[in-house]
Amino acid sequence: MAKKKKIVIDQDKCIGCNTCPLIDPDTFELDQSDYKAKVKRQPEEIEEIHQTAVDSCPVGAISIVEVEE
Ligand code: SF4
Predict the structure, then answer these.
(1) Which residue of 29, 59, 63, 64 sits with most ligand 1 atoms within 8 Å of its CB, as the best mutation to test the pocket?
(2) Helix-strand-coil percent breakdown of the chain, rounded to 5?
(3) What CATH code is carried by the domain that includes residue 40?
(4) Count of domains in the chain?
(5) What pLDDT is stored for residue 1 in this prediction?
(6) What is the pLDDT of residue 10?
């Protein structure tokens, strides 16, 4: 089965700092109801900008995981 990479945000860890939506507003958004980041749209391919968001999150809430399609 094919594997695909996916971005996951740990809602318990996210402190709503708004860094990830600033880095990549196409992929991340801050939910105004609970001030937690959500994945707005899963990217087709994981690119450097997504890794930058992972590395920039102050609480390590963003992960790139492999899922089976
Ligand atoms: S960078 Fe991390 S803590 Fe900040 S909004 Fe994004 S997921 Fe939440």
Answers:
(1) 59
(2) 20, 30, 50
(3) 3.30.70.20
(4) 1
(5) 73
(6) 98
Cβ of 7 less than 6 Å from ligand 1: no
For residues 31-67, b (16+ Cβ closer than 10 Å) or e, as one string? Answer: eeeeebbeeeeeeeebeeebeebbeebeeebbeeeee
CB of 63 sitting under 6 A from ligand 1: no
**Measured from the CB, is residue 22 less than 6 Å from ligand 1?**
no
- Show the tokens assigned to 43: 């990217």
| Tens place of pLDDT per residue across the chain (69 aa) | 788 999 999 999 999 999 999 999 999 999 999 999 999 999 999 999 999 999 999 999 999 999 987
